[in-house]
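Checklist before submission:
- one chain only
- standard amino acids only
- sequence pasted in full

Submission:
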Amino acid sequence: MRRAAVAVAAGAMAISLAACGSAGEAGGDNDSTASAAKGDNIKVGLLLPENQTARYEKFDRPLIQAKIKELTNDKATIDYNNAKQDANLQAQQVDTMITNKVDVLILDAVDAKAIKNSVQKAVDAGIKVVAYDRLAEGPISAYTSFDNVSVGKTQGEALLKALGGKAKDGQIVMMNGSVTDPNAAQFKEGAHSALDGKVKVGKEYDTKEWKPENANQNMESAISALGKDKIVGVYSANDGMAGGIITALKAAGIDVPVTGQDAELAAVQRIIAGEQYMSVYKPYAPEAEAAAEMAVALAQGKSLDSIAKDKVDSGSAKGIPSVLVPVTSLTKDNVNDTVIKDGVYTAAEICTGKYKAACDELKIG
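Returned file contents:
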């Protein structure tokens, strides 16, 4: 019940985030008339990219579905699928959505460039596409995500704070995300803007498919190449990879600050235990509910003017109406004021077993 209440509150936050600004119209007059006639009886397609990262099935999917149901008086039909990090499978899933004649598609792309032809096929079939979390190529009608450059900058600044004077004494390892994810490039850009000139990057990797096991292998290679006494910190683009990185560091007897992103439960526990320095807390409810609001509006032939306050450009489209949600640096000092306050986790979920003593010391809960 607590999370449901938070979702409603966050929905209001999403609306306030997008209350004013410029945006494009949701199609031509004929499209609007036809869509408006559907009322609440719309069919929404939802395609998420993978299930390696806990957020998609735990937060994004239920939040999006709940908001669509709320906005349509529980009359909308939602077709859902997860691509499990397979770009070819996701292209097939788009084809299925076209065959099923969805009115609008919310798409979080596995590979933002590879999906371009599928986006075009959907649009050619009269289906408007909302890019979710990752900005897919093609004729996208709307987009919602976080300020991804700011995410990377937040991570880089946090790492520098953790290093203090040690920033000049050694080298860091940068573990970026997958090259198929345009967000990863923006995280990297933001991180470099904070780190360049202030600390030496000894090794840097683009981690295939964001997989923790690949990050673990990359970290082992970096330790072998640089030597364990030379590494003073690790920039990790997300929490899943941070877990693999920390495993490699522990095996080598190295204790240095490691960044992350997504505020996964395991990462919050590592932060409390002092194994991971920080994560980027991204409030998923505003992002998810903005996607639902834009999708429903597009399916019903309505303008996005009252929802989207920003515009962004992709490699193939300009001025895409967008909602960009701000982020917070999560450390052991603000667990209570972030994930617990917002109802993402309870103290009981975080403070299990070996973490209870650390929780008591930090007064978590």
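Reviewer check: The chain has 14 helices and twelve strands.
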